[in-house]
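hey
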């Protein structure tokens, strides 16, 4: 039972045209922003945002955009299934983590100082 991974590609000309239109709209919006350099900033930003909004709208009516929307809906549905801990449980687990980190820090410090004492004082005879 071998399953081959499916590769999703843009198959229709209409989908390719939509994605090409998105690219042209994004590039055109950015170009318009710079070409309107002599105009007021609010007008330049308005043209840029309007072009990007149209590009986003065209993208979301394409198959790729619809797949992203479906993925987002599925993600929200899955997050709603999660059993979240209560405030008390979250506080307890956080306290356990802090206590463990503190114990590990003390253990590593003691190990470091013990090895330092063994190596420098006992074996090498160096005094600090």
């Amino acid at each position: 039972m071998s399953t081959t991974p499916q590769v999703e590609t843009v198959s229709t000309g209409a989908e390719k045209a939509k994605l090409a239109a998105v690219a042209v709209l994004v590039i055109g919006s950015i170009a318009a922003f710079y070409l309107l350099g002599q105009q007021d900033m609010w007008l330049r930003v308005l043209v840029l945002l309007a072009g990007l909004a149209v590009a986003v709208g065209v993208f979301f009516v394409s198959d790729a955009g619809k797949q992203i929307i479906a993925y987002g809906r599925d993600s929200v549905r899955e997050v709603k299934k999660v059993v979240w801990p209560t405030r008390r449980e979250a506080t307890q687990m956080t306290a356990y983590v802090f206590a463990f980190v503190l114990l590990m820090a003390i253990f590593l410090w003691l190990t470091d100082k013990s090895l330092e004492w063994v190596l420098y004082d006992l074996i090498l005879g160096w005094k600090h």
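The chain has a mean pLDDT of 90. The CA atoms of residues 71 and 77 lie 10 Å apart.
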